[in-house]
Design goal:
The complex is a heterodimer. By secondary structure, chain A is an alpha/beta fold. Chain A has a single domain, classed as Aldolase class I (TIM Barrel, Alpha-Beta Barrel). Chain A contains 8 helices and 10 strands. An 8-stranded parallel barrel of chain A has the order 1-2-3-4-5-6-7-8, surrounded by 4 helices. In chain A, strands 9-10 form a two-stranded antiparallel sheet. In chain A, helix 1 runs parallel beside helix 8 and helix 2 packs across helix 3. Chain B is an alpha/beta fold. Chain B has a single domain, classed as Aldolase class I (TIM Barrel), CATH 3.20.20. Chain B is built from 11 helices and 8 strands. An 8-stranded parallel beta barrel of chain B has the order 1-2-3-4-5-6-7-8, surrounded by 7 helices. In chain B, helix 5 links the parallel strand 4 and strand 5. Chain B is globular. The two termini of chain B are 12 Å apart. The chains are: A alpha/beta, B alpha/beta. The interface between A and B is medium-sized, with 14 and 18 residues.
Chain lengths: 213, 233
């Protein structure tokens, strides 16, 4: 079975093209301003229009205000919003209603108890995303993810969810097959694992997607 | 890109009187008229000369798809209408497109330009998979556009998202006729999510098909003029 791939943190056209041509199912644009993969809305608009309906376009936010998310959506065509901060179920629901877009909710995972909040989002989030828990400093800023670290994939191996979910966190060509094998993920999210010197590599994007297709 | 108005107004109605009235008003305000299957199935070539008499370029969007002989015959039959553009499905294959190009070249007066339809914009990769075409949509679009070019077609119809890619791979002289465009002033809510006329032309579109933002406006002429204003003089 083919694994669906999301290439997250796209900031240039070459990476977008590589994702499209290799057959990624999702691309992510990061609208968290202090992220090193932040993309300004005007630039994201251009890339989003180039992606068209050939791929699902996800906008990443962390604890956004209504104004912040509105400002982005005014210009950038998106198919999903992804919430990567500490948004409560109520806040997530409000943002989902406001944007009228399906929602991906990210959960930082390190131990079994990190899965406890997940059930509160059942029926609310359209997709879950399990990412490795970031270090304390990043977490304080409200961003979980993109850290390039793994978590213990076996935490997922015995679990079933009624909501489709992405596996994220430090995935790359060197560990992806093992990660899928252990976690039984059907959807994966990669970012730093397809970068060379912190920049998305079209070659790595293509080879990773080939590996899991 | 010439300084001609790139906008073709889609007259998507079966009502020939309404279509003609709109067309007459829009003369000089749009670059041409698109007559599609909805109109053509209802009216055929009856009264078609009324449109021709307006002297505006006509894009006959009939999306022919059949065996080579039949499509070539259909093109020959359409030549008397003297359209500027006719669409055919590239998935009819190279032989079909070559036969169509040959038939078009035999036009006694005006040779219509043939435009290929690649993958219908309503289809995504999952839909293609259902059809047994286990392909990635963008790759299939690129492949069919290049096949169209090799088979002698003058251009393709493509979605806004495909313009830049096809301009890159098909070179500067290939016609890219682009539907699904909304002017920036018509953009509100969801509509801002699509490409504007200016953006599409900047990316390499040669012609734009715009329907409802013009035909559905209270004042279609003013709407068409507003769109034309988006382009540098």
């Amino acid at each position: 079975m083919t694994t669906k791939v999301k290439i997250c943190g796209i900031t240039d056209e070459a990476a977008l093209r590589a994702s499209l041509e290799a057959g990624a199912s999702y691309v992510g644009f990061v609208f968290v301003e202090f992220s090193k993969r932040y993309i300004a809305p005007d630039k994201a608009r251009t890339l989003s229009l180039l992606a068209g309906n050939a791929i699902k376009r996800v906008g990443l936010f962390a604890n956004p205000t209504d104004e912040e998310i509105e400002r982005v959506l005014q210009d950038v065509p998106l198919d999903f919003i992804q919430l990567h901060g500490q948004e409560t179920p109520a806040r997530s629901e409000a943002l989902k209603k406001k944007t009228n877009l399906p929602l991906i909710k990210a959960f930082p995972i390190k131990t079994e108890e990190d899965f406890l909040p997940v059930s509160d989002y059942q029926g609310l989030a359209d997709v879950f995303l399990f990412d490795s828990k970031p270090d304390e400093e990043l977490r304080k800023k409200g961003l979980g993810g993109g850290s390039g670290q793994n978590f213990d994939w076996s935490l997922l191996s015995q679990k079933t969810f009624q909501t489709p979910w992405f596996l994220a966190g430090g995935l790359s060509a060197s560990n992806i097959l093992e990660a899928i094998n252990i976690s039984k993920a059907q959807m994966i999210d990669v970012s730093s694992g397809v970068e060379v010197e912190r920049k998305k590599s079209p070659k790595l994007i293509k080879s990773l997607i080939q590996l899991v297709s | 890109m010439t300084n001609k108005n790139p906008v073709f107004c889609a007259l998507d109605t079966p009502d020939s009187a309404l279509a003609l009235d709109l067309a007459s008003k829009l003369k000089g305000h749009v670059g041409g008229l698109k007559i599609g299957l909805e109109y053509f199935m209802a009216n055929g070539s009856k009264n078609f000369s009324d449109f021709s008499k307006l002297g505006m370029p006509i894009f006959l969007d009939v999306k022919l798809h059949d065996i080579p002989n039949t499509v070539a015959g259909a093109i020959s039959s359409l030549l008397s209408l003297e359209p500027d553009f006719i669409t055919i499905h590239t998935s009819g294959g190279a032989a079909m497109m070559e036969a169509a190009a040959k038939a078009a070249a035999e036009a006694p007066r005006k040779k219509p330009k043939l435009l290929g339809v690649t993958v219908l914009t309503s289809l995504d990769s999952d839909d293609l998979g259902q059809l047994g075409q286990d392909v990635i949509t963008v790759r299939q679009v690129k492949r069919l556009a290049l096949l169209a070019q090799e088979s002698g077609l003058d251009g393709v119809i493509c979605s806004p998202a495909e313009v830049k890619m096809l301009r890159d791979v098909c070179g500067p002289d290939f016609i890219l006729m682009v539907p699904g465009i909304r002017p920036s002033w018509a953009a509100s809510g969801d509509q801002k999510r699509v490409m504007t006329p200016r953006e599409a032309v900047d990316q390499g579109a040669t012609h734009l098909v715009i329907g409802r933002p013009i035909t559905g406006a209270d004042d279609p002429v003013a709407a068409a003029d507003l769109i034309a204003d988006e382009f540098p003089a």
